[in-house]
């Protein structure tokens, strides 16, 4: 039986950098998502969460830049990475997070695979239940790094108080979204990132394309696309850049209902036979795709 660190890891969440957290929350609510209240981290960032069963979107902004610690020799600074991402490439998805059953074991596995030599990072904060009461949530993170993708952050997240974090009431979205189906990574040469992503994912099954491929995770998937494939699958015309995250895809039961919602809200979108897309330029730097469940 594989150890927790060697078993394939499911999609946990996508970290999306924004400059104005309230404006981002309002946008996602307009798109039909239920957005959680503001949370503050002791390392200078703030977030709001869009939750699905077993996965979520994390909208992150800088709250107190003076509280952001620097990167250490074996410590990864979440706050410094997000600050630099917003200052450099701007708003949009910045970090891919997979689920962890044992963050310490993941960190050891990443070290052995040569994809990260960082100490696991523990933190806790007070969350809120739907009735407004406080609940402790706690996490331990294990970071990895792909030197060929310096604009992309990677870590796994172990939930230490899952009963206080996951809540079905937070997962009922007016647009009908039922799951975070995929994160989308753009790379000029996807093959250059395959060894890293295979190790980071715990050996997830790779579904072959042409130059592109898909990592089929136990929960969700990671679409790794070259510019031509990204244009075909997600209707984007990306510039040639270092590898970066384009956005995400959610599953919905009715694309027509989503289209009607967006039309009523005057949100521009495009559509093909399989998906409906809100382009990054209309969604704070993050491509948002809807596909039929």
Classify the fold: give the CATH topology of the largest domain. 2,3-Dihydroxybiphenyl 1,2-Dioxygenase, domain 1
Secondary-structure element series: EHEEEHEHEEEHEHEEEHEHEEE
Question: What percent of residues are in strands?
Answer: 25-35%
In helices, the fraction of residues equals 10-25%
Question: How many individual domains?
Answer: 2
Low-confidence stretches: none
* Radius of gyration of CA atoms, rounded to a whole number: 18 Å
Question: What is the CATH architecture assignment of the largest domain?
Answer: Roll
What's the number of helices?
7
Distance between the ends: 32 Å
Overall pLDDT metric: 93
Helix/sheet category? alpha+beta
Side by side, the strands of the main sheet go 2-3-4-1-5-8-7-6
For the record, what is the CATH homologous superfamily label of the largest domain? 2,3-Dihydroxybiphenyl 1,2-Dioxygenase, domain 1
Q: Categorize the overall geometry.
A: globular
Give the total of beta strands: 16
Largest sheet: 8 strands, mixed
CATH C-level of the largest domain: Alpha Beta
Short description:
The chain has helices at 21-30, 78-88, 103-113, 162-165, 194-200, 227-234, 255-264, and strands spanning 11-17, 39-40, 45-52, 55-62, 92-100, 121-128, 134-144, 153-159, 179-186, 205-208, 213-216, 221-225, 244-252, 270-271, 275-278, 287-292.
């Amino acid at each position: 039986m594989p150890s927790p660190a060697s078993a394939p890891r499911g999609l946990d969440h996508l970290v999306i950098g924004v400059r104005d957290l309230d404006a981002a929350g309002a946008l996602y609510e307009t798109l039909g998502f239920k957005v959680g209240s503001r949370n503050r981290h002791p390392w200078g960032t703030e977030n709001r969460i869009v939750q699905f069963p077993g996965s979520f979107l994390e909208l992150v902004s800088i709250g107190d830049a003076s509280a952001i610690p620097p990167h250490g020799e074996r410590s990864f600074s979440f706050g410094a990475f997000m600050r630099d991402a917003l200052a450099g490439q701007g708003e949009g998805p910045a970090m891919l997070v997979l689920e962890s059953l044992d963050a310490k074991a993941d960190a050891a596995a990443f070290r052995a695979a040569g994809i990260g030599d960082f100490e696991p990072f523990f933190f806790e904060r007070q969350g809120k239940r739907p009735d407004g009461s406080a609940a402790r949530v706690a996490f331990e993170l294990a970071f990895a790094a792909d030197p060929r993708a310096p604009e992309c952050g990677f870590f796994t997240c172990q939930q230490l108080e899952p009963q206080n974090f996951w809540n079905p009431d937070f997962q009922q979205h007016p647009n009908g979204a039922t799951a975070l189906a995929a994160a989308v990574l753009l790379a000029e040469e996807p093959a250059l990132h395959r060894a890293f992503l295979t190790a980071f994912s715990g050996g997830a099954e790779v579904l072959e394309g042409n130059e592109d491929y898909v990592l089929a995770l136990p929960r969700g998937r990671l679409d790794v696309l070259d510019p031509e494939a990204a244009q075909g699958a997600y209707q984007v015309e990306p510039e040639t850049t270092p590898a970066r995250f384009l956005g995400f895809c959610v599953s919905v039961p009715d694309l027509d209902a989503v289209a009607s919602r967006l039309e009523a809200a005057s949100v521009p979108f495009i559509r093909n036979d399989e998906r409906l897309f809100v382009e990054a330029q209309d969604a704070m730097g993050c491509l948002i795709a809807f596909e039929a469940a």
